[in-house]
Design a protein that fits this description.
The chain is built from 23 helices and 31 strands. With 853 residues, it is of the alpha/beta class. Helix 12 runs parallel beside helix 14 and helix 17 packs across helix 19.
């Protein structure tokens, strides 16, 4: 096929040019004493590059001739790719407000959810710990239904603890335990480094005495249950375990209470399609309904099929011609397969009708393990590094990548898995049925190799390592010289590696190397400095990396280096910021970095920049494109050291954390476009918060771990004019005097571990925009004040209040602060109930210093 021929020519040209550019770079930087020798090497490399370019031009010309010969046929072609690029993309142009739809429940699942809620709370034994199994076909909505139940108001109030983990086909017990613990308490590095036995015991202790709900999603085998069930104590209080599975034998083995998730009716499928395709507009022709009901019948009652076909139809701008093309394509697949069209055919059609520029982006999801919750920002940076984005005028590559992902989300091919406190996408996921299709299409195109205990290594563009050993060795490739590998991403969690080398010929054009989940113990793997085409490098290590020559990686765009062992801090070269192609730099807080010698025109993200007491004024003019910045301050600063903040005109997100500073002074001027500010350990007096309130574009404010100090937050004339989200965690103020006028458009208030605060200002009931107050681990007086606000707003139902209790329920004996109080905390080792005798303020401080919050 012509498209395959074009792809082959492009891939070959990319490899040949990359190889010759590598030779040219190495020659230009050769460490030879003879200057003339260096010039000869450079001249020879230039000549080879020139010859390669000439050959590439000839190959391209040959393809052009083929295209011209076939042009009449192409013009009359009705292939899906051609339609996708010339009809669908041109018609479908979503506005920014349409890009990220709010999560909406599947039609028809509300009664089902209530039935499961009744099984959890009302129908079972009030004492016995019981297992309830939800059974159904893949894509029938088991996980969606379980999430609705998990977040149901009565479920949240009835169970003290709720925890969720995905078991998946290839289950990992340690990962399951960590995910469950992460729902109960903050998981630190110390916890994640424990073995399975220690984690299981910690989970069991956290559940002792609590009424809990555990969700084990997507269970494929009873082996996972047999291993983990001892972590779930029978507290004789009505605890429940909810399991979802598509296998009847798993259900009957685990439970006598089985809930069969029903298929949707054809009418319900049509309602899903109609709502997504037309919204509130409705349709003007009976042809739409004719096609729509035909699609609904072909969904076979599977909600995922209806959601996917609805997402596809929503991109057509209601073009009947394209609806007809989709119908014809589904019919052809039915004829070819000699069976009824179902979920597999519909997922295939959704891929066929993707515009070409989205196909590579979509298939890239196959590189992640099944059921992976993928960090959204990481995915964007990977797509930029891979190089298959179309540059657009006046938009950064990150913005282009984000628009591609938004498009896939709107098509329902990608799901939002987790949002940040301000509503932005934090993690995304794809359904395992869609993941199967990604793997199938990627294998068909020979662009991805999945490597684990069941799959041998194949040379492809993307290598997804999901094994429990390090597979990239010379022997594993049998001295193969193929240079087509561009990316290696390692997903073998909790694997320790002492040494490895990466200098093999087949890796010389590597662009992406993600070893963030591999625990390396000798600084940097040998040979990385020679991978000069690297654009993305992520590594978790211990040992010295001070002598590593980052300067050779001149194409590096994203660099992430962290220590996987708590208290083992790395020492990095101080000139990393001299890499001029860097766009995103993530280092641990204690690394010291020199400011670059030249202006960094590309750097957009910098975490963390350490500022020490010995530093003089920092010249932030060196980062004109910076959008996100984390500042870590250690030791007393020269007054005015951070005043050049104001020159970061594009900065939108700023985090400031302090250690070993007696007195921190807020800068008098912040970046003018700052939208999100996080302060931690800054101990600023409340009287200075007026500096923050003056920020003209501030939408999200996070005050963590004694960011402000003093017993009273007294707000007078200051107003946070456009603040939408306010998070307060682990502050020790007791009184908050504020009104609705101080936060005129606040939408969300989050209070965590505010053990001294007695109530939320009652006038917040008059904030018309307020949608939710989230209370986590607070005393009942604070919770009750939030419910008072709820009752005042009940008539118009403008706010939704969530109380997420982590076990801190002990009340102060009186209104005065007692020196000694019994504070209940769910994870105090060595105690069954978690009760300790400590001064309350000292408890807060010690927990926050250990990184518990």
């Amino acid at each position: 096929m012509l498209d395959t021929e074009i792809q082959d020519v492009a891939t070959k040209a990319e490899g040949q040019i990359g190889s010759k550019l590598r030779l040219l770079y190495l020659a230009a930087n050769a460490n030879s004493n003879a200057k003339g020798g260096d010039e000869c090497l450079v001249e020879e490399a230039c000549q080879q590059l020139y010859q390669t370019m000439q050959q590439v031009l000839k190959d391209i010309k040959a393809v052009e001739v083929r295209i011209l010969m076939l042009k009449p046929n192409l013009l009359s072609s009705s292939t899906n790719d051609f339609q996708g690029d010339n009809i669908m993309v041109g018609v479908y142009s979503p506005s920014p407000s349409d890009l990220i739809p709010e999560d909406t429940p599947i039609i028809g699942l509300d009664p089902e959810a209530w039935e499961v809620v009744k099984m959890l709370i009302y129908k079972g034994s009030p004492l016995k710990r019981e297992v309830i199994a939800m059974c159904g076909l893949g894509g029938i909505g088991k996980t969606t239904l379980a999430k609705m139940v998990y977040e149901h108001r009565e479920v949240r109030h009835y169970f003290h603890i709720r925890a969720w983990t995905v078991v998946s086909r290839e289950h990992n017990v340690k990962e399951m335990l960590i995910h469950l613990l992460d729902c109960i308490l903050p998981v630190t590095t110390e916890i994640s480094n424990k073995d399975e036995v220690e984690l299981a015991e910690q989970l069991r202790k956290s559940l002792v005495g609590k009424r809990y709900l555990i969700v084990l999603d997507d269970m494929w085998t009873v082996k996972a249950w047999d291993v983990i069930q001892l972590c779930f104590p029978n507290n004789f209080n009505g605890s429940r375990i909810l399991i979802t599975t598509r296998l009847r034998e798993v259900c009957t083995y685990l439970s006598e209470q089985i809930f069969d998730v029903r298929s949707l009716s054809t009418e319900e499928c049509w309602q899903i399609i109609k709502r997504k395709a037309f919204g509130n507009r409705g349709y003007t022709s009976v042809s739409y309904e004719s096609y729509g009901r035909s699609f609904s019948r072909q969904c076979k009652g599977i909600p995922l099929a209806a959601v996917l076909i609805a997402g596809l139809l929503a991109t057509t701008n209601n073009s009947l011609e394209i609806w007809g093309n989709i119908s014809e394509t589904l019919h052809r697949k039915k004829v070819i397969n000699y069976k009824d069209v179902g979920l597999e055919a519909i997922t295939s059609v959704c891929y066929d009708f993707l515009p070409n520029h989205l196909k590579a982006c979509f298939l890239y999801f196959g590189i992640f393990p099944e059921d992976s919750s993928i960090p959204f920002t990481k995915l964007i940076n990977l797509l930029v590094a891979e190089g298959f984005l179309k540059p657009e005028r006046n938009r950064s590559l990150e913005e282009v990548a984000k628009s591609y992902l938004y498009d896939l989300i709107n098509r329902n091919l990608v799901q939002i898995n987790k949002r940040s406190v301000d509503g932005k996408i934090k993690r995304c996921i794809i359904h395992d049925k869609v993941h199967e299709m990604c793997l199938r299409e990627a294998k068909k195109k020979n662009i991805m190799s999945l490597l684990n205990e069941k799959h041998a290594l194949e040379v492809c563009r993307w290598i997804s390592c999901q094994s429990s050993y390090w597979p990239i060795t010379q022997a594993s490739f049998e001295n193969h010289t193929f240079d087509g590998i561009r990316s290696i991403l390692y997903f073998g969690r909790y694997f320790y590696l002492s040494r490895c080398r990466l200098v093999y010929p087949f890796l010389k054009l590597l662009r992406v190397l993600d070893l963030s989940l591999l625990k390396y113990s000798h600084g940097m793997p040998s040979g990385i400095a020679d991978l000069i085409h690297l654009r993305y490098l992520a590594l978790s290590t211990i040992g010295s990396v001070y002598k590593f020559r980052f300067s050779k990686l001149q194409n590096l765009q994203t660099l992430i280096v962290s220590s996987w062992m708590g208290g083992c801090y790395l020492q990095l070269p101080s000139n990393i910021l001299d890499l001029l192609q860097l766009r995103h730099l993530h280092l641990e807080k204690r690394y010291s970095q020199c400011f670059p010698s030249l202006i960094q025109e590309n750097l957009q993200t910098l975490y963390w920049l350490k500022v020490a007491s010995s530093d003089q004024n920092k010249n932030f003019k060196m980062f004109p494109q910076l959008k996100e910045l984390g500042i870590y301050i250690e030791g007393e600063l020269v007054h005015g050291c951070l005043e050049s903040f104001v020159h970061l005109h594009l900065l939108e997100k700023l985090k400031v954390e302090i250690r070993w500073v007696e007195r921190f002074y807020l800068p008098t001027s912040f970046p003018p476009n700052l939208k999100q500010l996080t302060l931690r350990y800054t101990y600023v007096p409340w009287k200075e918060i007026h500096i923050v309130s003056k920020l003209p574009n501030l939408e999200t404010l996070k005050l963590k771990d004694f960011a402000f100090c003093g017993s009273k937050w007294e707000q007078t004339e200051m107003r946070f004019k456009i603040l939408k989200v306010l998070l307060i965690s682990c502050l020790d103020f007791t009184h908050w005097n504020a009104s609705a006028n101080h936060f005129p458009i606040l939408e969300k208030l989050v209070l965590k571990y505010c053990w001294e605060l007695k109530q939320v200002p009652i006038d917040f009931a008059n904030i018309k925009t307020l949608k939710s107050i989230v209370l986590e681990s607070c005393y009942s007086s604070l919770v009750n004040s939030a419910h008072d606000i709820e009752r005042r707003k009940w008539t118009n139902r403008r706010a939704f209040f969530v109380v997420n209790d982590l076990g801190t329920k002990v009340e102060l004996p009186n209104n005065d602060c007692s020196e000694e109080n019994s504070v209940e905390f769910p994870n105090n080792e060595g105690t069954e109930g978690g009760s300790v005798q400590l001064p309350e303020k000292k408890v807060l401080k010690s927990l926050s210093e250990e990184g518990k919050f």
